[in-house]
Specification:
Elements (H helix, E strand, L loop, with lengths): L4 H15 L6 E4 L7 E3 L5 H18 L5 H26 L4 E4 L3 H31 L1
Antiparallel strand pairs: 1-2, 1-3
C-alpha cells in the first residue's frame, strides 16, 4: 500500500484539499470602492461540502488498494468533485468587481492533477498485474 506511487498522489490530493479549507482562493471587492472580501470554503457551505468530500475520497481510496477497479472509480468521483469545486469557485468569482487569485489557490488546482496522476498509476498497476496473470 505505502510503496505504491498512487498512494502518494492520493495523499497529496487529500492534503491539498484539506489545506484549502481555511486558505483563501480569491480576494477582491464586491463594489469598486469597497472592503476586500475573500472566498474560502469555510465561508460557503457548498464549497465546504465539495472540498471535504474530495479530500475524503482521496483518503478512502488509499485504503482500497486490494480492489483496484473500485479504487479507480473512487478516484474518478474525487476528480469530478474537485472539478465541481473549481466550478463553484469560479461561479462565486463572478460576483466580484475587482480582485485576484490568491497564492493558495494553487492547492485547489493541484487536487485534480493529483487525482489524474493517481488514476494513471492505478491503471498501470492493474495492467501490470494482468500481464503477470497471463504468464502463469
Amino acid at each position: 500500500m505505502i510503496q505504491r506511487i498512487q498512494t502518494l498522489w492520493l495523499l497529496l490530493a487529500s492534503i491539498c484539499a484539506f489545506a484549502s479549507v481555511k486558505l483563501p482562493f480569491y480576494f477582491g471587492s464586491l463594489e469598486v470602492p469597497g472592503p476586500t472580501v475573500t472566498i474560502t470554503p469555510y465561508d460557503h457551505f457548498m464549497l465546504l461540502v465539495f472540498v471535504i468530500a474530495t479530500a475524503l475520497m482521496g483518503l478512502v481510496s488509499i485504503f482500497l488498494f486490494s480492489n483496484r477497479s473500485l479504487q479507480i472509480k473512487m478516484c474518478i468521483v474525487g476528480l469530478v468533485l474537485s472539478l465541481a469545486n473549481l466550478m463553484h469557485y469560479f461561479l462565486f468569482m463572478k460576483n466580484f468587481k475587482t480582485g485576484g487569485l490568491s497564492l493558495y489557490s494553487i492547492l485547489s488546482f493541484l487536487v485534480p492533477v493529483f487525482f489524474i496522476l493517481a488514476i494513471r498509476s492505478i491503471y498501470k498497476d492493474q495492467k501490470l498485474l494482468k500481464s503477470l496473470d497471463r504468464l502463469r
